[in-house]
Design brief:
Blueprint (H helix, E strand, L loop, with lengths): L10 H10 L3 H6 L1 H26 L30 E7 L9 E7 L3 E7 L4 H13 L1 H13 L26 H4 L4 E7 L1 H4 L4 H23 L1
Antiparallel strand pairs: 1-2, 2-3, 3-4
Length: about 220
């Protein structure tokens, strides 16, 4: 597609080793490996995806390294004082910023690689708008669910309230009960090591974004 040629063969082994060598000296000795096999490919991937989405009229973009989360952990209030993350994550959004509601997220790491899209733990006002849009237009929401199912995607239910949220009690035990209890509206797809080291990864993510587009479009309309 462009300059992205795949993540380096040592990308995942680097994170595996970093998990056991959580010290600055080791990281500094292997910084070039991180740069060459992880960071530079991620920047190239984001650049290629930004160009592809622009050509397809998809409002998702990234601003190079600014879209990538730092590898250094914030350990000020954490019990685990390990200084480095064992993954690399990056966000694409309508504005290119990490905090914009409605995103595409790419994750490369030892715990598993995946691409995700949707609205991750939105703040209370945004979450309320999403829920109100669903109850106001249940047929449109059902069409979103049908489109996701056709694209072999399903909303994650990891973050779900045990009770129907306040203000939506009239929907309790109804067809929208489950979705209204979600705190995130997110779909995701796993990526294999073979896929992340291939130049075709960008095409795969473009295809995923196309299948996730109904969810993003519904949410953007709701919050705008």
């Amino acid at each position: 597609m462009g300059s992205f040629k795949g993540f380096g063969k040592q990308a995942l082994p680097f994170f595996t080793a970093l998990k056991f060598h959580q010290d600055k000296a080791w990281f500094d000795e292997n910084r070039a490996l991180y740069q060459g096999d992880v960071l530079d490919p991620m920047v190239a991937l984001l650049d290629d995806l930004t160009a592809a989405f622009a050509a397809n009229g998809v409002p998702l973009r990234a601003d190079g390294k600014k879209a990538i989360f730092r590898i250094h952990r914030d350990v000020r209030f954490a019990k685990d004082k390990s200084p480095y993350k064992t993954n690399c994550g990056a966000v694409m959004s309508r504005t290119g910023t990490k905090m914009e509601p409605g995103l595409l997220y790419i994750h490369i790491g030892t715990e598993g690689c995946f691409v995700a899209a949707g609205f991750y733990m939105p703040d209370a006002p945004v979450l309320a708008k999403l829920r109100k849009a669903i109850t106001a237009s249940p047929a449109k929401w059902k069409a979103v669910e049908a489109a996701l199912k056709k694209g072999k995607l399903a909303l994650g239910t990891d973050s779900q309230l045990t009770r129907i949220p306040r203000g939506f009690e009239d929907q309790k035990d109804g067809p929208l009960d489950g979705v209204l209890r979600l705190k995130s509206f997110l779909v995701r797809e796993p990526l294999t090591e073979k896929q992340i080291t291939s130049a075709k990864l960008a095409d795969r993510i473009v295809d995923f974004a196309d299948r996730a587009q109904p969810l993003l479009a519904f949410g953007w309309t709701a919050i705008d």
